Amino acid sequence: MSNPPNFAQAVDLSSLGKAKTVPTGPIPGIEVNASNLTTQLLPVSKLKPVILLCWSQRDPQSIAMLTLMGELEGKYQGSWALGRVDIDEQPQVAQALQMQKIPYAVALVGEQMVPLFEQAYPEEQVRLVIDKVLALATEQGVGEAGAEIIEPEEEEAIAALESGDYTVAEAAYKKLLARKPADNFAKLGLAQTQLLIRTHGFVLEEVIAKSQLDPTNVALQLQAADMEIVHGGVEAAFSRLLELVKNSSGDDRKLAKEHLLSLFALVDPADPRLSAARTALANAIF
To answer: CA 141 to CA 93: how far, in whole Å?
Structure first.
């Protein structure tokens, strides 16, 4: 790829303040200039995506975004590289990247430029953008799929599960969901942990025997279904709760249905037993 266009033009910096605020600590990313943009970063973009952030020491928002991007580069474990363009020092590079205002981010994928955003965003939205860049790069044969990001709350939960402290694991997953309500992995982790809490200390054969002696006892049937799921009896658990839905009414029926739906969330969506049970539940309800 040849040099980016418009290197000879200047950037209008009149909208920025006069005073500079030097970021605390080491400044993240590779410092970009006209030389290393073409000799270093463009070649790197053939191996993995490069994200360039245009920023200024006179703009607090761009400083905050640069700090965030540096943190995310570490969390993505080297699946992409960060470059920083100080628009006060490198106005020609900023112009070549078609910057209009800061903070401005552009990706280089296989030596091709992909504009990303031109304002500050919260971490969750920035991650979505980065994930799309990595997906695009993978489609074009650049780099590999991004490394899995493990949230600190998830690390806490996994450590607690390994030590058998399910209460701490549950609290950690709840903290993660309070911060990221749409995190499907956290939802699954919480559901699995709560299942372990409900079944801890019980013996499968004893619970099943009690449920058989008292088939109308809703609490016992729910507990038996939990134990069956834990021990791999997916069909048995689904059948038990489907029968309970069919043969109960009012609050008991509602409780059985909700519990069955919670167990559905623990099974692979592609599992044919799940699709069959969903159909059976719909028939039982309607």
So the answer is: 27
List C-alpha distances in Å: 275 to 2, 52, 104, 110, 279: 54, 45, 46, 42, 6
Helix (H, G, I), strand (E, B) or coil at 50: strand
Q: Report the pLDDT value the prediction gives residue 116, as an integer from 0 to 100.
A: 93
Q: Percent of the chain at pLDDT above 90? A: 62
Q: How many domains does the chain fold into?
A: 3
Q: How far apart are CA 218 and CA 99, in angstroms?
A: 64
Whether the model pTM is above 0.90: no
Instruction: Answer yes or no: is 12 within a domain.
Output: no
Q: Can you name the residues that pair with 250 across neighbouring β-strands? A: none
State the Cα–Cα distance between residues 199 and 218, nearest whole angstrom. 16
Question: Residue 182's domain spans which residues?
Answer: 155-199
Q: Is 216 exposed, middle or buried (CB count within 10 Å of its CB: 0-12, 13-18, 19+)?
A: exposed
Query: What is d(CA 205, CA 104) in angstroms, rounded to the nearest whole number?
Result: 62
Q: How far apart are CA 220 and CA 242, in angstroms?
A: 15
Q: Which residue has the higher pLDDT, 227 or 146?
A: 227
Q: Are residues 224 and 267 in the same domain?
A: yes
